[in-house]
Amino acid sequence: MLRLHGFASSNYHNVVKLVLIEKGIAFEEVTVYPPADEAYTSKNPTGKFPCLETEDGSLLGESKVMLNYLEDAYPDVRLLPEDPLGRARVRELMEVIDLYLELPARTLYPEALFGGKVSDEVKDAARLMLIRGVTGLKQRARFEPYIAGPELSLADFGAAIHLPLISITSKAIYGDDLLATIPAVSAHRELMNERQSMQRVKAERRDDVPHFTKHFANATRTR
Ligand SMILES: N[C@@H](CCC(=O)N[C@@H](CS)C(=O)NCC(=O)O)C(=O)O
Fold first, then answer.
1. What integer pLDDT is reported at residue 219 of this predicted model?
2. Ligand 1 centroid vs 106 CA: distance in angstroms?
3. Please, what is the average pLDDT of the chain?
4. I need a surface site. Which of 92, 186, 197, 206 has the fewest CB within 10 A?
């Protein structure tokens, strides 16, 4: 059986988990929290969460690599179009969301989510990147009703998990939600929230938050 190593309040973990559920793949979650210890970096050398263990015990890092692997290895439920350009469009959206929205927002999480402080320099740099991401999404996302067109795709799961976090972070740091300039984002959020997979992932995230928070507080104290 496949094993997903990571934790249920992690956004990248949850994107992979959603795709496992949607494809009906049997998997086990192995809960492990950051910071990565030696046991974890022996599985995923970057120390990033999650890590996917395949049926033959091979280990994969990087969530988008995992999604593409799942699509190749378990094609019964298809989450990428058949044609090369359609596949590229889905992957382009996934990159825009990760590189120009989630990654810059991540530099703001210490203040937006964890009660810390980030400098004005970091906030200004993140804002410039977030604006690139919003512009990319505005021009490339189709919302017909799914993000890449009429068919559900891998990119919908990254959007469903990451975009709400980016809205919360943007409001907390800049006082306005940069994603609000794309009105279709909220309809897409509602559409995705109707899925059973999303409801399960959100419920399990809620249950994990106190454990993650406790672990995070202890890890920060002993650093
Ligand atoms: N590019 C990585 C990003 C994963 C990532 O940033 N995961 C966070 C948890 S949501 C993490 O590992 N945080 C701990 C750390 O950075 O040390 C992926 O797509 O898997």
1. 75
2. 10
3. 96
4. 206
Candidate from 9, 10, 16, 49 with most ligand 1 atoms within 8 A of CB, to mutate: 49
Q: Where are the alpha helices (DSSP H) in the chain?
A: 11-22, 38-41, 63-73, 84-95, 103-106, 109-112, 120-140, 154-174, 184-193, 196-222
Token look-up 């934790």 returns 7
Shortest-distance atom of ligand 1 to CA 50: 20
Ligand 1 contacts CB of residue 81 (under 6 A): no
pLDDT > 70? residue 102:
yes
Q: What domains appear along the chain, each with residue ranges and CATH number?
A: 2-78 (3.40.30.10), 84-193 (1.20.1050.10)
Say how many Å lie between the CA of residue 84 and the centre of ligand 1: 28
Q: What CA–CA distance (Å, rounded) separates 179 from 171?
A: 10
Instruction: Report the distance separating Cα 218 and Cα 32, nearest Å.
Output: 14
Answer whether 118's CB lies under 8 Å from 124's CB. no
